[in-house]
Write a structure and sequence with these properties.
336 residues, mainly beta, 20 strands, disordered N terminus
């Protein structure tokens, strides 16, 4: 479950905004220089992460940065509707009620996202080289489960200590870049967790404390992520663009609440808490004018917040999605 805190924890983040009363009279706000979809959503419906719906329901806003001073937006029923050109606001629910002016609220406060989602799903070549290996158990059974004692071959140097919790994972296929084909790491499937009991390099003794899938010799040990992630939203240092390279547990179609992995990392300037827009190139319809082929605006698929960063890759939690997300979809950091 994911929550948003504005100073203090407020409540469920991922529900669509409910607004005030169902019969709320509409109001008009005029875009000012420096406004963004993020900021507008936060100001008027107290949900800065509502903007994917705002964008998808307003197709003439072709790009999240392409809103301009003087453009008008209607606010009513907990929704934001951009008004194309000089169009008028939809008629209010009660005849004869004129829309009122809407003053700007106080500046945005710090926003923190908390989630129980784990970023496991991709392991980098460096992480794989330093991962431990489950080599044996106290009996000859092929499958192991909770409460079983197991022995782990550890790679020096190690910071492993008694009491540490590690994730047991199965290493799967190589994860290759959708464009260059470069090997970015390996897909991993979460099997369970083990607690370290004793460390005698090059072997450690551990106890399996949870198991979600079959655990066999050869499973790898990697540090467990915290049970709850907490990241504070912050702007990226600059414009970045990359690709979705995969998700968790070899899932093909990804959506809201899922972890995605991208081909951007700390070496590119990406940091925990950065927001990513997820987009896909839009293809022309069969009825498009043949003489005037032009690139169409990308389709918006959703937004994600970076929760873990490696030098060349990162894991991000999808906080909103308007369509299925696949490896090869694009990610960008917002300009504002």
């Amino acid at each position: 479950m994911t929550f948003i805190r504005k100073g203090l924890l407020l409540g469920a983040l991922l529900l669509l905004p409910l607004g005030a009363a169902a019969q709320e009279q509409p109001r008009i706000y005029t875009i000012k220089k420096g406004d963004t979809l993020w900021g507008i959503s936060h100001r008027f419906i107290k949900d800065p992460l509502y903007w994917p719906n705002l964008w998808s329901y307003n197709p003439f806003v072709s790009n999240p940065h392409f809103i301009y001073p003087g453009q008008k937006v209607a606010i009513y029923d907990g929704k934001l509707v951009f008004l194309p050109g000089e169009g008028e606001i939809p008629a209010p629910s009660e005849p004869g009620v004129e829309p009122g002016a809407l003053p700007l609220p106080e500046p945005q406060e710090e926003i923190t996202i908390k989630t129980t989602a784990a970023p496991e799903g991709l392991i980098t070549p460096y992480e794989l080289n330093s991962a431990g290996t489950l080599v044996d158990a106290t009996d000859t059974r092929l499958l192991m489960a909770e409460n079983d004692r197991v022995f782990i071959k550890i790679q020096p140097p190690t910071t492993m200590q008694p009491g540490d919790i590690y994730s047991l994972v199965d290493v799967g296929r190589k994860v290759r870049h959708p464009v260059s084909g470069e090997n970015l790491g390996y897909q991993v499937t979460h099997l369970g967790q083990a607690r370290i009991i004793e460390v005698n390099p090059p072997v450690a003794t551990a106890e399996i404390i949870s198991s979600q899938k079959e655990i066999m010799r050869g499973a790898r040990l990697i540090p467990s992520p915290p049970s709850q992630l907490s990241v504070t939203l912050k702007k990226a240092v600059g414009p970045l663009a990359g690709y979705v390279i995969g998700g968790k547990d070899e899932r093909i179609a990804l959506s809201q609440h899922d972890i995605i992995h991208v081909d951007l990392g700390s070496d590119d300037g990406l940091a925990e808490g950065n927001l990513l827009y997820i987009t896909r190139p839009r293809t022309s319809s069969e009825s498009a004018t043949k003489k005037h082929r032009v690139p169409l605006p990308d389709s918006l698929l959703g937004a994600a917040v970076v929760v873990k960063v490696n030098p060349h890759t990162a894991a991000a939690l999808v906080i909103k999605s308007t369509d299925a997300i696949y490896a090869g979809d694009r990610v960008i950091t917002p300009a504002e």
